[in-house]
Write a structure and sequence with these properties.
The complex is a heterotrimer. By secondary structure, chain A is mostly helical. Helix content of chain A is 70%, strand content 2%. In chain A, α4 runs antiparallel to α6, α6 packs antiparallel against α7 and α9 crosses α11. Chain A is elongated and about 105 Å long. Chain B is an all-alpha fold. Chain B has 14 helices and no strands. The longest helix of chain B is centred in the first third of the chain and has 51 residues. In chain C, α3 runs parallel beside α5, α4 packs across α5 and α5 runs parallel beside α6. Chain C contains eight helices and ten strands. In chain C, a hairpin with a 2-residue loop joins β1 and β2. The radius of gyration of chain C is 18 Å and the shape is globular. The chains are: A mainly alpha, B mainly alpha, C alpha/beta. Chains in contact: A-B, B-C. The interface between A and B is large, with 90 and 83 residues.
Chain lengths: 483, 463, 236
C-alpha cells in the first residue's frame, strides 16, 4: 500500500492529469476536436460576413425609406399614412455565433394606417431543398457536436474489455473507484471546457473585428456559463454510463441514443407538440378576426360606426354645436384618430393573445427539458445572443409604438387644420416635418432583460448538472462492487 | 451466383435472429407515423387557410350579387365595375403533402389579384403569424424522418457488418474459404437491405396511406427514393467495414459519416454559396420598387392635376374615364418597372439554379428534393404557381381592358363567367424530371461507394 | 501438396519473410516453431492468399496461390488460434454455412452431422447455439469442416493454445487421423512438446528465416528445447 508524502499530489488530480494526457495523445480525438473548432471558426467567419451584410443592407434601406418619405413633398397626411413607411430590425452582433431564430424573423415591418403588420422579408424565404439543411453555427456545434465528441472521447474510459482490465490494475494499485471516476471526470470536463474556451475565444475575436461593445462580451460570457454547465452534464453522463456498463457497445449505444434523442429529436418534436396543444391561427384567419372585431367590437355587437356616432354626439354636445362643421377642429381628423385607436387596440388585443399562445408553447417546450438539457440550453443561448423571440417582440413593440405615434401625429395634423374653404381643396402639408418629430430608435434586449426571462433555464441546467454528477457518483459505487 | 445466394441466405438467418433489429424498425415506424401525422395536420391547416383566401373572392362576389338584389331600378351599379372584381388564385397542397412540408412555407401560397393592382399580389401571403421558434426548430415531417433519421437507424443496424466478425476472429475462418471478399460483402449488404428496407418501405407507404396520401404513382416513387437512399447508406456501411477492424471504430466512422453527409456538408456548402452567390437583397428590391413607383405615381398625379379638373362626358359612361386613365397609368408603371423586376427575378433564378445543382453532389439533399417534389412542396411548384398567377393577372387585366373598351359593367350573371384560375400541376407528377435526376444522383453516389468497396476489398481481408 | 519456393515478404523496410523454402507432403505434419514475430503467421497468410508475396511462390495442391487464391482455398482448411463461429447460430448451422462457403460437394444435413460426430462433438451439442460452446468444442467444428471439405491441406495457427491437456490430446488424435487420410498439415505452434509428439517434421523459424529443419523422430523433447533456445539466442 503506497503512502502519500506531504508533497504528493492528490490522487484525483493524478488521475485527471493522466486522462488529459491520454486524450491529447489520442490522434483521432485531437483531429476531431481540431476539425470541430475549425468548422466553428469557418461558420463564425461566414456568419460574421452575413451579419455585416445584413446591417449594411438594413441601414441603406432605412436611409432610402427616409429619403422616400421626405421626397413625398406636400401631401395629404392621411394619404401619407396609407403610403406608409418601413422600419428595419436591428442586427445582433452575436447572431454570427448564435443565429437563433434570425433566419425566421422578419427583417422589416411595413408601417401603415389601420394595420399592424407582421414582420416580413425573412431570410429563409425563397429557398430550395438544400435550404432545409441550413443551421450550422458555432452555437449549434456546441449544442450538438460537442456532446457527441464528449461521448466518443469518453465512452471507453471504463467500458470495454481493455478498460476493465486496466481498471482491475488501477483498483489493485490502491485507487478507489470514486477517485478514478472523479479524476477522469475532471479530466474530461477540463478538455471539454478547453474546447468551449476555443469557441469563446473565436467568438470574442469576431466581436472585436466587428467593433462590438463590452455589452456583447458580457452576453458571450453569460452564454458560456450556460454552455459550461451543459457540457458538464454530458461529461458526467458519459463517465457514469461508462462506469455502469462493462460492454463498450452497450455504453456507446445508450449514450448515442440519449444524444440523438436530446439534441436532434426532442428539439423537433417538442415544438410540434407545443403547436398541437396551443395552435396559432394562419395569417388570413388572424387578419379576418381582427377586421371583424375592429368593425363590430369585441362582443360583435358594438359596431365601430355606432361608437363613432356616439363620439360625434358627445363632441357636439360638449362644444354646444349642431353640425360637425361648426366644431373648432376638423372632425375628419378626430374620426381618423378614433379609427386608428380602434384598430390599434384591436390588433394589440389579438397580438397579445397570439403572443400568449407563443408563451404557452414556450412553456410546453421548457417542460421537455426534463428529458433533454438542450431544451434549456438553446433558449438561454439565444436570449443572450439577442436572436430569440423576446428580442424580436421588443422590435415589434417599438415599431408599433412608433407607427401609432406617427400615424396619430399625422391624423392629429388633420384635426388641427380645419379646412377654411369647406373642404374643396385637398389639405396638404410637409409630412417629413411631422415625421421628424417622432423618433424610432430600436434596441436589442439588455443582458439584464435576458437574465430575467431565462433564469429558470439556468436553474434547469444547474439541476441537470447536479443530477448527472450524482449519477456519476452512484455509478462509481457500482463500479467498485462489480469489478 | 449461388455463392451470393448462400451468403445472403445465411446473413438473412443471422439478421432475423438479431434482437435489436425489430426495435430499430419499430422506432423508425413510430417516428414515421408521427411525421406523417404532423404532415397531414399541416396539409389540413394549409388547405383551410387556402380556403379562407379563396372564399374572399366567393364572398366578395356574393356580396355583389346582394348589392344587385338591393339595387334600385334605373341606378348604375358602380360596384360592378370589372376593376372591383376580386380574384384569388390559390395553390392547394398536393395529394402527397403529408410526406413533406418542404419549401411550402418559404413561398406564397395565394395571391390577391385586383385587375387594376400592381405586381405585389403575393405580399400578403409571404408573411405569417406562426411562432418563429417552432418554425426555426424545423418541421418534423416524414421527409425529415427519412432524410435524417433513417440513416441513423440503418447505421445502427449495419455498422458492424463485418467489423464484428473481425473482432471475434470469425473473419479468419471466412476469408480462408474460397469466397471472394466482394461477393461476401455484397451478400451481407443485400441481406441487410432486404431485412431492413422491406419493412421500412412498407411502413413508410403505410403511414402515408393512413395519412391520406394515396396516389399510387407517387407512393411508388417514394418507395424508390427510400430504397435508393437506404441502399446508399448500406453501401456506406459496407465501405466503412472494409477498413474498420473494430466495431467501435466502425460506429465512430458511421457517426462521422452521418454528421458529414447529412449535416455539415450541406450546411457548409450552403454557407459558402451564400457568400459567392448571395441572394439578391429583398430589402433593396422593395426599396427600389417603392422609390420608382412613388416617383412614377407622383409624376402621374402632377400631370393629372396639371390637366385641370376632370371633364365628365355627356352622357356619362358607365365606367368613369378617370378609371380608364388609371388603367393607362398602371400600364405605364408596369412597363417602367418591368426591367427592375426582371433583374431581381433573374438574380433569384440564378441563385436557385446554383442551389439546385448542388444536390447532385449531396445525396441527403437530393433525397429531400425528391421527396419535396413528390409531395408538391418544392420550390419549382411554388414558382410555377407564381408564374401562373402572374399570367392570370394579365388575363384579368386584358379582360378588364376589353370591358373598359365596351364600357360594360358586369351584370349579376356575368359573375359566373369571369376568368377562373386553375393551377396546372407539373406533367409527369411524381416521376417528373427533377425526381428522376435526384434518383440518378443518389444511385450514382451509391454506386461510387460500391466501387470503393470493390477497390478496397483487400483491406477487408486483413486478419 | 504444400510448398514454398524462395517465398519472401517485405513490409516497407521490414522483411517479415526471407526466402522461405518449405515442403509438406501428403501424410506429413510439419510443425513450424518460433517466437512471436518470427514469420509463422506471415507464412500461413501467404499460403492462404491473404498476403501477396514480394517474391517467390506458394503452391497449394499444385495451384499457385498468388495466381488463383480461390482455387487454392478450395481444398485447404485454415484453423486459426481462435476458432471463432457465429454465436447466434448452432454448431450445425455454422458448419453448414462454412461448408457452403467452402463449396463442399455433399452438404446434406446427414453428412454434416456425420462430420461433426467424426470430429468428436457430442450429438446433443449439434443444435445448441455456439455461444455455449467451449474452445475445444469450437475446435471440433473446425475439424468437422476439414472432414467435410476433404481438405488435402490443413493450416493450423496455435491450435492448442488455451486448451486443457485432455482437449489438446483429443485434438491431436484428430490431426493424426487426418494425416492418415493423406492430408498435408502445416502447424505453427509454441508447444515444443506437442510438436515433437505429433509432428513429422520440425522447422525452427527466426526473423523470417527457416533456421533449421529436422525430422521430429530424430530428437528428444529436451534436445529440441535446447536446440530451440540455441537458435533463439543466436544473434541474427
Amino acid at each position: 500500500m503506497t503512502t502519500q508524502s506531504a508533497h504528493a499530489p492528490s490522487p484525483v488530480l493524478v488521475v485527471a492529469r493522466n486522462q488529459l494526457r491520454l486524450m491529447v495523445r489520442d490522434n483521432r480525438l485531437r483531429l476531431l476536436a481540431v476539425a470541430v473548432v475549425l468548422l466553428a471558426v469557418a461558420s463564425l467567419a461566414t456568419g460574421m460576413a452575413r451579419v455585416q451584410a445584413q446591417a449594411v443592407e438594413r441601414h441603406a434601406a432605412t436611409q432610402e425609406d427616409k429619403r422616400l418619405w421626405d421626397s413625398l413633398g406636400p401631401v395629404n397626411p392621411h394619404g401619407a399614412v396609407h403610403s406608409g413607411r418601413s422600419v428595419y430590425a436591428p442586427v445582433a452582433p452575436l447572431a454570427a455565433f448564435e443565429p437563433g431564430l434570425s433566419d425566421f424573423l422578419g427583417s422589416s415591418v411595413k408601417l401603415e394606417g389601420h394595420s399592424q403588420n407582421p414582420s416580413r422579408d425573412r431570410p429563409m424565404e425563397g429557398g430550395s431543398a438544400i435550404s432545409r439543411f441550413a443551421g450550422f453555427s458555432a452555437a449549434w456545434a456546441l449544442q450538438v457536436v460537442a456532446p457527441l465528441l464528449i461521448i466518443l472521447a469518453g465512452f471507453t474510459i471504463f467500458s470495454g474489455e481493455r478498460a476493465r482490465e486496466r481498471l482491475k490494475q488501477e483498483l489493485g494499485s490502491g485507487a478507489s473507484a470514486r477517485v478514478l471516476v472523479f479524476g477522469r471526470l475532471i479530466g474530461l470536463t477540463t478538455a471539454s471546457l478547453t474546447l468551449l474556451g476555443a469557441f469563446v475565444a473565436a467568438g470574442i475575436l469576431t466581436l472585436a473585428i466587428a467593433n462590438a461593445s463590452m455589452n456583447e462580451g458580457l452576453r458571450l460570457l453569460a452564454m458560456s456559463i450556460g454552455y459550461g454547465l451543459y457540457l458538464l452534464v454530458f461529461c458526467s453522463l458519459t463517465i457514469g454510463v461508462s462506469a455502469l456498463f462493462p460492454s463498450a457497445r452497450a455504453a456507446l449505444v445508450s449514450l448515442l441514443a440519449f444524444w440523438a434523442a436530446s439534441t436532434l429529436l426532442i428539439p423537433r418534436i417538442a415544438p410540434a407538440i407545443a403547436e398541437n396543444l396551443h395552435p396559432t391561427p394562419s395569417a388570413p384567419a388572424f387578419e379576418d378576426a381582427v377586421s371583424e372585431e375592429a368593425k363590430n367590437g369585441v362582443s360583435g355587437h358594438d359596431p365601430r360606426d355606432e361608437r363613432l356616432l356616439a363620439l360625434k354626439e358627445k363632441l357636439l354636445k360638449q362644444y354646444n354645436v349642431t353640425k360637425v362643421e361648426d366644431l373648432p377642429f376638423n372632425f375628419e381628423g378626430v374620426s381618423l384618430e378614433f379609427g386608428e385607436k380602434n384598430s390599434s387596440d384591436t390588433y394589440n388585443r389579438h397580438y397579445d393573445k397570439l403572443f400568449g399562445a407563443y408563451a404557452n408553447q414556450t412553456a410546453v417546450q421548457q417542460a421537455f427539458s426534463v428529458i433533454s438539457p438542450n431544451m434549456a440550453m438553446t433558449p438561454w443561448s439565444r436570449a443572450f445572443a439577442g436572436t430569440d423571440f423576446a428580442a424580436h417582440r421588443l422590435f415589434l413593440r417599438e415599431a408599433e409604438d412608433y407607427r401609432y405615434e406617427l400615424v396619430q401625429a399625422l391624423n392629429n395634423d388633420i384635426t388641427r387644420n380645419k379646412p377654411t374653404d369647406g373642404g374643396v381643396a385637398i389639405y396638404r402639408t410637409d409630412v417629413s416635418e411631422i415625421a421628424d418629430r417622432v423618433a424610432f430608435e430600436p434596441r436589442i434586449t439588455t443582458p439584464a432583460e435576458a437574465w430575467a426571462a431565462q433564469k429558470s433555464n439556468l436553474l434547469i441546467l444547474s439541476i441537470w448538472a447536479a443530477v448527472s454528477l450524482a449519477f456519476a457518483a452512484w455509478a462509481a459505487t457500482r463500479l467498485e462492487r462489480t469489478t | 451466383m449461388s455463392m451470393l445466394a448462400a451468403i445472403t441466405r445465411h446473413e438473412l438467418r443471422r439478421s432475423l435472429r438479431d434482437r435489436a433489429l425489430p426495435w430499430l424498425i419499430i422506432l423508425f415506424a413510430a417516428l414515421a407515423a408521427y411525421g406523417a401525422w404532423n404532415g397531414a395536420r399541416w396539409a389540413e391547416e394549409r388547405t383551410d387557410t387556402v380556403q379562407i383566401v379563396a372564399d374572399e373572392a366567393t364572398d366578395g362576389i356574393a356580396k355583389k350579387r346582394e348589392q344587385f338584389a338591393e339595387l334600385k331600378p334605373g341606378a348604375t351599379p358602380g360596384f360592378a365595375g370589372p376593376q372591383f372584381t376580386p380574384f384569388r388564385p390559390v395553390l392547394r397542397p398536393g395529394v402527397m403533402a403529408p410526406l413533406s412540408i418542404g419549401q411550402a412555407e418559404a413561398y406564397p401560397y395565394a395571391a390577391r389579384v385586383a385587375p387594376m393592382g400592381d405586381i405585389r399580389i403575393f405580399d400578403a401571403f409571404k408573411v405569417d403569424v406562426d411562432n418563429p421558434a417552432v418554425r426555426a426548430a424545423g418541421r418534423f415531417d416524414l421527409a425529415f424522418v427519412i432524410v435524417f433519421v433513417l440513416p441513423l437507424v440503418l447505421m445502427a443496424a449495419t455498422f458492424d457488418l463485418w467489423s464484428r466478425e473481425r473482432e471475434r476472429g470469425i473473419s479468419a475462418m471466412v476469408v480462408s474459404q474460397p469466397v471472394s471478399v466482394t461477393t461476401l460483402l455484397a451478400g451481407k449488404a443485400l441481406s441487410r437491405a432486404l431485412v431492413l428496407l422491406t419493412p421500412i418501405i412498407l411502413a413508410t407507404l403505410a403511414v402515408l396511406y393512413v395519412a391520406g396520401a394515396r396516389d399510387l404513382a407517387a407512393l411508388a416513387a417514394v418507395a424508390l427514393v427510400v430504397a435508393a437512399y437506404g441502399a446508399f447508406w448500406i453501401a456506406l456501411a459496407s465501405l466503412i467495414n472494409v477498413f474498420a477492424k473494430r466495431s467501435t471504430e466502425a460506429a465512430l466512422a458511421g457517426g462521422a459519416a452521418w454528421l458529414t453527409i447529412v449535416v455539415l456538408a450541406p450546411a457548409l456548402i450552403l454557407a459558402t454559396v451564400d457568400i459567392i452567390v448571395p441572394a439578391p437583397s429583398a430589402l433593396q428590391f422593395t426599396s427600389a420598387y417603392q422609390a420608382q413607383s412613388q416617383d412614377i405615381r407622383k409624376a402621374q398625379r402632377l400631370a393629372r392635376e396639371a390637366k385641370g379638373p376632370e371633364v365628365i362626358r355627356d352622357p356619362a359612361p358607365n365606367i368613369p374615364d378617370r378609371t380608364r386613365g388609371f388603367l393607362k397609368d398602371r400600364a405605364i408603371e408596369d412597363r417602367t418597372l418591368a426591367p427592375l423586376i426582371r433583374r431581381h427575378e433573374e438574380a433569384l433564378a440564378e441563385r436557385r439554379a446554383v442551389l439546385n445543382s448542388l444536390r447532385l453532389f449531396l445525396p441527403a439533399v437530393a433525397t429531400q428534393d425528391a421527396l419535396d417534389r413528390i409531395a408538391g412542396s418544392d420550390a419549382d411548384r411554388a414558382l410555377s404557381f407564381q408564374a401562373q398567377a402572374m399570367a392570370f393577372m394579365k388575363v384579368t387585366k386584358d379582360w378588364m381592358a376589353e370591358r373598359f373598351d365596351r364600357d360594360a359593367l358586369l351584370t349579376s350573371d356575368d359573375y359566373d363567367h369571369i376568368p377562373k384560375f386553375e393551377f396546372k400541376e407539373p406533367p409527369a407528377g411524381a416521376f417528373q424530371t427533377g425526381v428522376l435526376i435526384d434518383l440518378a444522383a443518389i444511385l450514382a453516389a451509391g454506386l461510387l461507394l460500391a466501387a470503393g468497396v470493390a477497390l478496397g476489398r483487400r483491406a477487408a481481408t486483413t486478419i | 501438396m504444400l510448398s514454398a519456393n524462395g517465398l519472401t515478404k517485405t513490409f516497407g523496410d521490414f522483411k517479415a519473410l526471407d526466402g522461405l523454402d518449405l515442403n509438406v507432403g501428403a501424410g506429413e505434419i510439419y510443425c513450424l516453431l518460433g517466437a512471436n514475430g518470427a514469420g509463422k503467421s506471415t507464412t500461413i497468410k501467404l499460403f492462404l492468399g491473404l498476403l501477396q508475396p514480394t517474391s517467390g511462390t506458394a503452391i497449394v495442391n499444385g495451384v499457385d496461390v498468388h495466381k488463383d487464391p480461390l482455387a487454392a482455398r478450395r481444398r485447404l482448411l485454415y484453423i486459426p488460434e481462435m476458432v471463432a463461429l457465429y454465436d447466434e447460430l448452432t454448431g450445425l448451422e455454422n458448419l453448414a454455412y462454412f461448408a457452403d462457403l467452402g463449396q463442399v460437394a455433399d452438404r446434406s444435413p446427414a453428412r454434416l452431422k456425420a462430420c461433426l460426430s467424426e470430429a468428436g462433438l457430442q450429438e446433443s451439442a449439434f443444435d445448441r447455439r455456439v455461444s455455449f460452446y467451449s474452445k475445444g468444442m469450437r475446435q471440433k467444428v473446425g475439424i468437422a469442416l476439414a472432414i467435410a471439405k476433404e481438405a488435402k491441406v490443413l493450416l493450423l495457427d496455435e491450435p492448442t493454445s488455451g486448451l486443457d491437456p485432455q482437449a489438446s490430446a483429443e485434438f491431436h488424435e484428430l490431426l493424426n487421423r487426418q494425416r492418415d487420410r493423406g492430408a498435408a498439415i502445416l502447424m505453427a505452434t509454441h508447444d515444443l512438446f506437442r510438436a515433437r509428439e505429433v509432428g513429422t517434421t520440425i522447422g525452427l523459424m527466426r526473423t523470417g528465416k527457416l533456421r533449421r529443419v529436422l525430422p521430429a523422430a530424430s530428437v528428444t523433447a529436451q534436445d529440441l528445447e535446447a536446440l530451440y533456445l540455441e537458435e533463439m539466442a543466436t544473434a541474427a
